[in-house]
Amino acid sequence: MKLKRRKRKSGFITTYIIAGGFLLLIILGTLLLRLPFSSADGAGVSWADALFTATTSVCVTGLVTLPTFSAWSYFGQAVILALIQLGGLGLISFTILFLQVLGKKIGLRESRLIQDAYNLDSSNKIGLLVKKIFKGTFLIEGIGALLYCFVFVPEYGISGVWKSVFNAVSAFCNAGMDILGPSSLIPYQSNLAVNLITIALIVLGGIGFPVWFYAVDRIKKSKENRVSLRKTLISMPLYIKTVLFMTFLLIFAGALLVFIFEFNNAETLGRLSLSDKILASFFQSVTTRTAGFCSISQSGLRPGTVIICCVLMFIGGSPSGTAGGIKTTTFLIIAASMFSAVSGRDSTELFGRKINSETVRKAMSVFSLSFFVLIVSFLLICAFVPGSFESCLYEVVSAIGTVGLSRDLTPQLNLAGKLIIVATMYLGRIGPISLALFFNTKKYTNLIELPEENIPIG
Q: Which region among 1-10, 127-136, 300-309, 381-390 has the lowest average model confidence (pLDDT)?
């Protein structure tokens, strides 16, 4: 008999704090959006629509039962925007920033919360880290809003400023909600500026804050020590390599597949010029990575493209960012594990490095449980909501991946359907984060090692 002692960590508590924080925001947002003056007509909206909108905002999903541009007053839109910002960056980060503004000391507990929430290796200088996150976020969103103004102000007048700010925050937080009109960015599918600004904001928000910090640090050191680009790439940490590799691979592979499958489809790319087809293909590939804006009709996509988009939506963005999904690193670790098993290797290898078994188990768990929630939600939607197979699948994957793309099914949801999608969005947002932290807790102490026995596979 062997004794195994496992140390309990703070991540177990963090999972409840993160889940409770998101739930608290949703409840608060629901109450605010239920107020009569939150709606455009002053009559108020139903509890179901207020709950749905609050959830999709906090979970930065973007699915809407009511058109954001016409159903809500400026106050209602401001509430939605605040919920998007809070949900995108996380309640814990805002709490610590608030404590810093008040001059309060950041304790060990708060430091560990941020460390767990952003998957950091060290809890040193957490206050400085949080400031960097907010400064970087507001700087990028501010630049994005300013660039949008050059397009929206000439078109909408002074209200174009508000539309620019809303779009910039929504894009960076990968929320996908807009107040431009009923067709999202389809009227701007040939506008290079709007497309590139939106793509840049989505990618910067979804790539993860650690990648930002590494890039800024490398730029500073390269200027000071004149380090070559080749040496920088060689010395790049495995996590950064994984995120960058998967980000560019999924963007370009997704764009190529969308371009091929939709090239002659009159409902999507078929009527566009070649350059606009390429632009729309890249936008579709990027937005399916949990952003939710669209520049082509989603209901007009061919079945093959629907499957491609579902895969991209399920994978999502990268850890420690504003995007959802199971995350790029999770997918790559699972793929590497499968390749290692098929090739007869004893361990999972990636870019010349060995991945420890605990990380592989965590990736498998996140994938399996997310897929389980997807299947259950899909079956429930099929049971309670009339709709085609593709539309129901697209809706559920979009919800669990916190994407926000829909094949026009969301406005048709009945009460049961709304509640199912609300639960799916919530689990999709907190699930991968909480599961990753939960499997780090090691809260159980195993005193007995059980006998080992094999079961045939395949």
A: 1-10
Span 146-162, average pLDDT: 96
Longest dimension (CA), the chain: 76
What total of structural domains would you count in the chain? 1
**108-117 and 91-101 helices, crossing angle to 10°:** 140
Whether 117 maps to a domain, the answer reads: yes
User: Would residue 25 count as lying in a domain?
Assistant: yes
Which amino acid makes up residue 243? Answer: V
pTM of the complete model beyond 0.85: yes
- The CA angle 251-286-138, to the nearest 5 degrees, is 120
C-beta atoms surrounding 7 within 10 Å:
8
Find, among 287, 128, 136, 131, the residue nearest to 198 by Cα. 287
**Torsions phi, psi for 419 (to 5 deg):** -65, -35
- The share of the chain scoring above pLDDT 70, in percent, equals 80
Nearest to 184 by CA among 207, 163, 162, 200: 163
| Dist CA 52 CA 141 (whole Å) | 25
Backbone angles phi, psi at 107, to 5 degrees: -80, 180
For 253, the domain range is 11-441
Please compute the mean of the pLDDT values over residues 327-346 and round it to a whole number.
Answer: 89
Residue whose entry in the numeric block shows the structure tokens 């767990």: 116
